[in-house]
Amino acid sequence: MNAENTIAIAGFPVISTNARMLAVHLHQTILRHDKEMLFFANTNFIVKCRPLLEQMKRDAAIIVNDGVGMDIAAYLSGERFMENLNGTDFTPYFFSGVSRPLRVFLVGAKPEVLSKAASHVSHKLGQMVVGTCDGYAGLAKCRADLPALINRAQAEVVLVAMGNPAQEEWILANRQVLNANILIGVGALFDFWAGDKPRAPNWVRRVRLEWLYRLGLEPRRLLRRYTVDIVRFLILCRKHRGDGRAAEHQPPSAM
């Protein structure tokens, strides 16, 4: 990857691109029968996935920026991301641009949430859900057999909603044995699709305060993320400033 196409955030080579170019790159990946891993990096990702950094770089994962914290880190380095990207908005955008329904397998979340999310993918997004595995009893029961189940289902896209760093660990551990073209870590996306968690109003998202809206809804779960972990994030950014510029991956912006 050329240096101008990535911004190093705490050593992670984060691609500076936009939704259109990223979607086109993933669509072409499917047409070529290639494979890609896509991760959305916010401040929590940078802190929690630090032990996975070298493997992500070695396996040429696509890492894109998600959230105002990443913008601040880039600004402090004198750089700027092309566009903010997050899985909640990008994933349906990606599906909206396909010429035919894709074969999608969903992994993670509670069983009742997963069922509603799968219905959303089928009926609202117009894709073909070929299988699901919840992140609780389902995953405990079939973890060893799950890659084989996904391959038998001939999935083209696998959405993994386990949170950081569990979803990234699972994707990195299984990417070689999976035949699917696109593996995406989507965090809380299934909860949004199922209606289990509300999105922030549009105006809140426009002013980049969705994180504050979510903190107000789930203070116990998210307080540490937006206090202690933010400090850890800034320390990592300062400590590893300039690391991670030289990545081997060809950026979507150059496709």
Question: Can you put this structure into words, describing what you see?
Answer:
- The protein has a single domain (11-254), classed as Response regulator (Rossmann fold).
- Helix content is 45%, strand content 15%.
- The chain contains 14 helices and eight strands.
- The chain has helices at 19-31, 43-48, 53-58, 68-76, 87-96, 111-123, 137-142, 146-152, 166-174, 189-194, 202-206, 210-217, 219-222, 228-239; strands at 6-9, 12-15, 36-41, 62-65, 103-108, 128-133, 157-161, 182-185.
- The protein is globular.
- The termini are close together.
CATH fold title: Rossmann fold
- Dominant shape: globular
Question: Low-confidence runs (pLDDT<50, min 5 residues)?
Answer: 246-251
State the order of secondary-structure elements, H for helix, E for strand.
EEHEHHEHHEHEHHEHEHHHHH
Largest sheet: 6 strands, parallel
Q: How many separate domains make up the residues?
A: 1
Give the CATH level 1 class.
Alpha Beta
**Assembly state here?**
single chain
Residue share in helix? 40-55%
Kindly list the characteristics that best describe this protein:
255 residues; alpha/beta; Rossmann fold; 6-stranded parallel sheet; two-stranded antiparallel ribbon; 8 strands; 15% strand; globular
List the helices and strands and how they pair.
Layout: E1 6-9, E2 12-15, H1 19-31, E3 36-41, H2 43-48, H3 53-58, E4 62-65, H4 68-76, H5 87-96, E5 103-108, H6 111-123, E6 128-133, H7 137-142, H8 146-152, E7 157-161, H9 166-174, E8 182-185, H10 189-194, H11 202-206, H12 210-217, H13 219-222, H14 228-239
Parallel strand pairs: 3-4, 3-8, 5-6, 5-7, 7-8
Antiparallel strand pairs: 1-2
